[in-house]
């Protein structure tokens, strides 16, 4: 400020430039944070899906493949023959319902992720968009490989 208490014009320009630089840095930080969030969300969700789809200790778990059927349940619960006869139709009825619920949940998750990424993509630089594309392709390749492995194990 000068003696009159007014800010000289040159100082105003400098202050405006500083404010603009600060805004630009904040925007860059926000874009970087959004990209990080998108990537972390994608990785976390894909990790969750992979973990859920992989077998636990001792096989696929009680609700997957043959273990969902009579064999796994009877071994673990020591069911009698009469109990086995009563349990099997219940399991047979539940299996397609569980598969349908799983499929629906996966589709809903994909819809939310696609929507989220379509909102984030315009905020990214060309380089960040390329990185995002690479991440998505790697994720898709991993999921395809997992599906092929799963299908081969089912045969």
At a glance:
The protein is mostly helical. It contains five helices and no strands.
Description:
The chain is an all-alpha fold. The chain has one domain (9-154). It contains 5 helices and no strands. Helix 1 packs parallel to helix 5 (126-154). The longest helix has 45 residues, at 9-53. The radius of gyration is 28 Å and the shape is elongated.
Topology:
Blueprint: H1 9-53, H2 65-68, H3 70-77, H4 81-120, H5 126-154
Strand content: under 5%
Mean pLDDT: 75
Number of strands: 0
Q: What number of structural domains do the residues give?
A: 1
Low-confidence stretches: 50-63
Please give the count of helices. Answer: 5
SS-based class = mainly alpha
Largest sheet, strands/sense/barrel:
none
What is the ordering of alpha helices and beta strands? HHHHH
Distance between the termini: 82 Å
Helix coverage percent of residues? Answer: over 70%
- Kindly provide the radius of gyration, computed on alpha-carbon positions and rounded to a whole number of angstroms: 28 Å
Spatial shape: elongated
